[in-house]
């Protein structure tokens, strides 16, 4: 039984355990509908997306060979930023979820895919697919929630160090790929004691991250800059070419980091999204798990382009309900999911990008300070407990 | 030598760095899918209907292909409704063509997903995946003095490959071929041509009119039956009959057979699951996940979410049939196709006997 964040109002007090299982069945039915049509269209979609991304990346990098020329630098940097965002979000995140495993194409498969990101796919799959998606928004189990460094809930005890959390969050946003690599490694926990530090499994994972980061860095900050040197020589400015391309790659990486961080913050942080306590989510039924995903996620409204650029994480609610369905199907099922929310009188949290980002940041700032009034200790559970029990 | 090799390796390492985290060939794939050194593919260059239910595909294999020997088959990986399915098809063209191409002939199989897809959708320019040729249904280097081919239906395909490759080296050839009607004979015109030229003796049997061929009847058609080195290909029961007949005559070693797809998988409830590497065999009930059944029996298995969303628990299935416990989806694998789909053991229950590569 999941304990909801203690709030003035329990958003699910009106649901009976039978209601919750019925919600689960209705969501399963939506899933079945997608499975019935999943096929060639989805395969074509992801292959086309990969082809577009690779062309864009090669094109942008080709333009950046001329990075000594300012217009080329600007064009190449924009193109590369977009290419990296597509690669991470609509392609990488979704393939690593196994959304396209059904194709049985070893080239486009969660077990073989590697992405343009500091965190090695294998480690990310563990912390994201196994932990974040299973224990969504459970304080203390879901590392995505505040990444272990921030106060994300009124109920968490405040400490003076939390005053700095807007700054930590900003730094984390800029260096997001390294932040993710660090928390996939559970660095904080694993560096804490000598025994953990010397654990061979941890060491192996550390080496794996080291190799990945080294290759990523060599690519973006040595190999590609070096490729633009000959053109630089022709223009009499080899250093400008080298450092120009290097800077372009750095900018593209930071743009990608800021973008993905923002999108992900919008997924679980804005106002109206619930967090949960750790108390015995074991024995949670399928319906209860679905309900937690419904309450713990928020969408971003916007255009088709917006959805693609967020890897359809703009449909975070649908993604959390069906993480293994092709993301390009989320838009199609969103109206049905939303209708279900309305039917059961639940809040479907969604809003434009800017509003959601602002709302998430507002929460980061608010929780950096101690609570103004003591949080009321009301116990909310899935399924709702009998009042007598709830006072325990 | 050593220096140039070192330089080569170094240069390659740089190219790899440029494309990391993917390999250079992944970029090449976007424009030249046949050039990939690690993934063998072929382009369909021509599609020729043979009969109403058979079509010949002319294939241009990509990099890494090795020529076939007459009688062998290749496995084709075809994306049917977005899912890559592998099937074995006999090579029907002569070996050693100078243009480097080869053909396979696809015959409609009842309820055959891939064959019906290819019959309806194969087009010039389509890319299919490919495996190296395989199979032991071969003519020996020392050609026999007298040969007999007994085929039925699509069983003519590998034999056609043999005839086209080696007929000029064979002196006394009899072909006994069964098909439903005269029109249903795949390569009918070519076979009849060879017969009129006197290069083979062709005995056609049209089963709709004359009934199925029984081995006892063969002696009348081919009196020196057991003196001939014999190759047979066709439906399983025909081959069973022939094997028995040849064994009774003490001539089993003169009969060479090629069996096509034999297993038909039907979904049931539960089944024995064999973990091939550990040797563990588990009785896995229909309502229990293979993960749970395996763990309960002491098999070491990886798992993560245990609810079907993380794909950490996947294992390759060599042969068998499983049901998705969430939505009832059936997944099958069969040894002949050589495809080993990865199944999520945490939400898959056995729906028949399964062999897992673990
Ligand atoms: S354990 Fe996560 S999908 Fe099976
Ligand atoms: Zn996800």
Automatic annotation (TrEMBL), chain A:
Domain Fatty acid desaturase: 73-350
Any matching Pfam family: FA_desaturase
GO molecular function list: oxidoreductase activity, acting on paired donors, with oxidation of a pair of donors resulting in the reduction of molecular oxygen to two molecules of water
Keyword entries, A-Z: Membrane, Transmembrane, Transmembrane helix
GO process annotations (BP): lipid biosynthetic process
Superkingdom of this protein's organism: Bacteria
Cellular component terms per the entry's GO annotation: membrane
Transmembrane segments: 63-83
UniProt protein name: Linoleoyl-CoA desaturase
Organism listed in the record: Actinoplanes philippinensis
Automatic annotation (TrEMBL), chain B:
Occurrences of domain FAD-binding FR-type (ranges): 37-140
MF-aspect GO terms: 2 iron, 2 sulfur cluster binding; metal ion binding; oxidoreductase activity
Gene3D superfamilies: 3.10.20.30, Nucleotide-binding domain of ferredoxin-NADP reductase (FNR) module, Translation factors
Keywords: 2Fe-2S, FAD, Flavoprotein, Iron, Iron-sulfur, Metal-binding, Oxidoreductase
InterPro entries reported for this sequence: 2Fe-2S_ferredoxin-like_sf, 2Fe-2S_ferredoxin-type, Beta-grasp_dom_sf, Cbr1-like_FAD-bd_dom, FAD-bd_FR_type, FNR_nucleotide-bd, MRET, OxRdtase_FAD/NAD-bd
Entry cofactors: FAD
PROSITE patterns in the cross-refs: FAD_FR
Xref: CDD domains: fer2, FNR_iron_sulfur_binding_2
Keyword Metal-binding in annotation: yes
Top-level taxon of the source organism: Bacteria
Name of the protein: Ferredoxin-NADP reductase
Lineage, top ranks: Bacteria, Bacillati, Actinomycetota, Actinomycetes, Micromonosporales
């Amino acid at each position: 039984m999941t304990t909801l964040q203690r709030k003035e109002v329990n958003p699910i007090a009106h649901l009976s355990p039978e209601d919750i299982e019925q919600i689960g069945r209705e969501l399963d039915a939506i899933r079945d509908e997608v499975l019935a049509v999943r096929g060639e269209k989805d395969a074509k979609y992801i292959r086309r997306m990969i082809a577009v991304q690779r062309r864009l990346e090669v094109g942008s990098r080709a333009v950046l060979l001329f990075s000594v020329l300012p217009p080329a630098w600007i064009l190449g940097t924009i193109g590369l930023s977009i290419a990296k965002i597509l690669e991470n979000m609509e392609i990488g995140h979704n393939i690593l979820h196994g959304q396209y495993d059904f194709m049985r194409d070893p080239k486009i498969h969660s077990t073989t895919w590697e992405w343009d990101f500091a965190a090695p796919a294998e480690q990310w799959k563990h912390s994201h697919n196994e932990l974040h998606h299973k224990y969504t928004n459970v304080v203390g189990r879901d590392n995505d929630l505040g990444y272990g460094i921030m106060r994300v809930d009124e109920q968490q005890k405040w400490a003076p160090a939390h005053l700095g959390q807007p700054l930590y969050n900003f730094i984390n946003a800029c260096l997001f790929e390294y932040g993710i690599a660090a928390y996939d490694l559970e660095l904080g926990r694993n560096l804490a004691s000598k025994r953990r530090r010397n654990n061979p499994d941890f060491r192996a994972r550390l080496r794996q991250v080291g190799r990945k980061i080294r290759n990523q860095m060599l690519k973006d900050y040595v190999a590609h800059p070096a490729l633009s040197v000959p053109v630089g020589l022709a223009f009499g400015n080899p250093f400008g070419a080298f450092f120009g391309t290097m800077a372009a790659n750095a900018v593209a990486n930071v743009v990608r980091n800021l973008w993905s961080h923002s999108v992900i913050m919008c997924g679980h942080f804005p106002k109206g999204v619930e967090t949960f306590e750790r108390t015995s989510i074991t024995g949670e039924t399928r319906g209860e798990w679905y309900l937690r995903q419904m309450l713990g996620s928020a969408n971003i409204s916007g255009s088709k382009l917006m959805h693609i650029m967020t890897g359809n994480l703009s449909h975070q609610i649908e993604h959390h309900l069906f993480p293994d369905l092709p993301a390009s199907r989320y838009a199609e099922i969103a109206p049905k999911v939303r209708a279900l929310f309305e039917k059961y009188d639940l809040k479907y949290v969604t809003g434009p990008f800017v509003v959601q980002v602002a709302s998430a940041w507002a929460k980061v700032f608010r929780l950096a300070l101690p609570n103004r009034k003591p949080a009321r200790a009301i116990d909310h559970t899935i399924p709702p407990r009998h009042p007598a029990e709830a006072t325990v | 030598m050593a220096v140039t090799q070192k330089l080569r390796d170094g240069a390659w390492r740089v190219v790899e760095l440029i494309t990391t985290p993917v390999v250079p060939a992944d970029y090449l794939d976007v424009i030249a899918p046949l050039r990939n050194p690690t993934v063998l593919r072929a382009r369909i260059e021509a599609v020729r209907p043979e009969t109403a239910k058979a079509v010949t595909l002319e294939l241009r294999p990509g990099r890494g292909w090795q020529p076939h020997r007459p009688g062998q088959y290749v496995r084709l990986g075809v994306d049917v409704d977005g899912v890559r399915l592998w099937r074995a098809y006999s090579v029907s063209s002569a070996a050693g063509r100078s243009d480097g191409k080869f053909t396979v002939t696809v015959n409609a199989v009842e309820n055959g997903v891939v064959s019906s897809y290819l019959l309806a959708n194969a087009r010039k320019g389509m890319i299919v995946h490919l495996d190296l040729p395989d199979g032991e249904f071969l003519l020996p280097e020392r050609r026999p003095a007298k040969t007999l081919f007994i085929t039925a239906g699509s069983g003519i395909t590998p034999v056609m490959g043999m005839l086209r490759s080696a007929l000029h080296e064979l002196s006394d050839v009899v072909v006994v071929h069964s098909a439903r009607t005269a029109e249903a004979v795949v390569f009918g015109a070519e076979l009849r041509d060879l017969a009129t030229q006197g290069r083979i003796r062709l005995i056609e049997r049209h089963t709709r009119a004359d009934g199925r061929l029984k081995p006892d009847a063969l002696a009348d058609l081919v009196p020196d039956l057991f003196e001939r080195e014999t190759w047979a290909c066709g439906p399983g029961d025909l081959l069973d009959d022939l094997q028995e007949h040849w064994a009774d005559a003490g001539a089993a070693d003169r009969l060479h057979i090629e069996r096509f797809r034999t297993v038909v998988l039907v979904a049931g409830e539960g089944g024995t699951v064999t973990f091939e590497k550990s040797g563990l065999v588990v009785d896995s009930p229909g309502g229990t996940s293979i993960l749970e059944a395996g763990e309960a029996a002491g098999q070491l298995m990886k798992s993560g979410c245990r609810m079907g969303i993380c794909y950490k628990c996947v294992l390759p299935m060599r042969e068998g049939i499983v049901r998705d416990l969430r939505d009832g989806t059936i997944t099958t694998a069969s040894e002949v196709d050589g495809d080993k789909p990865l199944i999520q053991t945490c939400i898959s229950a056995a729906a028949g006997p399964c062999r897992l590569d673990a």
